[in-house]
Specification:
- It is a single chain.
- By secondary structure, the chain is mainly alpha-helical.
- It has a single domain, classed as Farnesyl Diphosphate Synthase, CATH 1.10.600.
- It is built from 12 helices and no strands.
- The termini are far apart.
Length: 285
């Protein structure tokens, strides 16, 4: 049973919740010299609870809509494969939102109404990403959602929680992380084109086709490195760009209208982590 819940939580996606918080906290320390471990832990917990809730909702709602079946090309899904009931997964998602709300209340006591402004949309969109009257993933807005919530808001919000300030540097870093995280979603949708089209899930790939989305993935790979030059021209630009160049070549050479390498999603996640690690090392030293 625990293995089924772990499968539904999609642990490989959790870096998308952890990386912005970790980077934002480090950026706050670099800019102001302030770091509150308790607030950092609460921020991490809130982000992880919301991420897992989102994954649970995705698992059950995609199964209900037929977007996930046992014949899917990607990893096995807990609800679609019958490992967990729909009711159980909905309850699991609700529990995660309850835990996230408790964390949000503790952060509200520290930082006030901005936490409500950030938290309420985040809680709703954990469901609204695939459910509700305007499911973002079914309208081709998944990548926009990720750039906004897993990039700008996650990084900027973390810096605010640490410092009580909204700092311009956090928006640049948020865009960088947001673009690389959105590339993960685009690659996932690229792989699932035929299955998504069959159930009217109008992802950006269904709307515009694989050739154009391939160019978008390449653009989202390059933009974070160009943004380095927007606020800091330094020697580390060349070093930091090496993993981006390698990933660019991998995408350009291996992805095609009919073929998506199984390892590409993992490589994209590794690229995000390497980018942030290099940038964090520069912040420290």
């Amino acid at each position: 049973m625990m293995k089924s819940w772990l499968l539904a939580s999609r642990p490989k996606t959790l870096p998308a919740a952890l990386v912005p918080v970790w980077s934002g906290a480090l950026l706050a320390w670099q800019l102001t010299g302030e770091f509150d471990l308790r607030l950092a832990i609460l921020t991490v917990l809130g982000a992880v609870f919301i991420q897992i809730a989102t994954n649970f909702f995705n698992d059950v709602i995609d199964a209900e809509k037929g977007a996930d079946t046992e014949a899917r090309l990607g990893p096995q899904r807990a609800t679609a494969s019958g490992l967990l009931s729909r009711r159980a997964v909905y309850l699991g998602a609700g529990l995660m939102l309850l835990l996230a709300s408790i964390v949000g209340w503790l952060l509200f006591l520290e930082r006030g109404w901005w936490i409500i402004a950030i938290g309420v949309p985040s809680l709703y969109l954990s469901y609204g990403y695939t459910g509700g009257p305007l499911p973002l993933a079914y309208r081709g807005l998944g990548e926009v959602f990720v750039i906004l919530f897993f990039g700008l808001i996650a990084v900027g919000g973390t810096v605010f929680i640490q410092t009580g300030q909204w700092l311009a540097e956090s928006w640049i870093l948020g865009l960088q992380i947001g673009f690389l995280s959105a590339a993960l979603i685009a690659i996932n949708n690229y792989r699932d084109l035929e299955e998504d089209r069959a159930v009217q899930k109008r992802t950006i790939v269904v709307r515009f086709g694989r050739p154009k989305v391939k160019m978008l993935i390449l653009a989202m790979t390059v933009l974070p490195y160009l943004l380095i030059l927007a606020h800091e021209i330094s020697g580390w630009f060349i070093t930091a760009s090496i993993p981006g160049l390698l990933f660019f070549v991998i995408v350009y050479r291996l992805i095609s209208p009919s073929r998506v390498p199984a390892a590409l999603l993992g490589i994209a996640a590794l690229h995000l982590i390497v980018f942030v690690l290099v940038q964090n090392i520069v912040m420290i030293f």
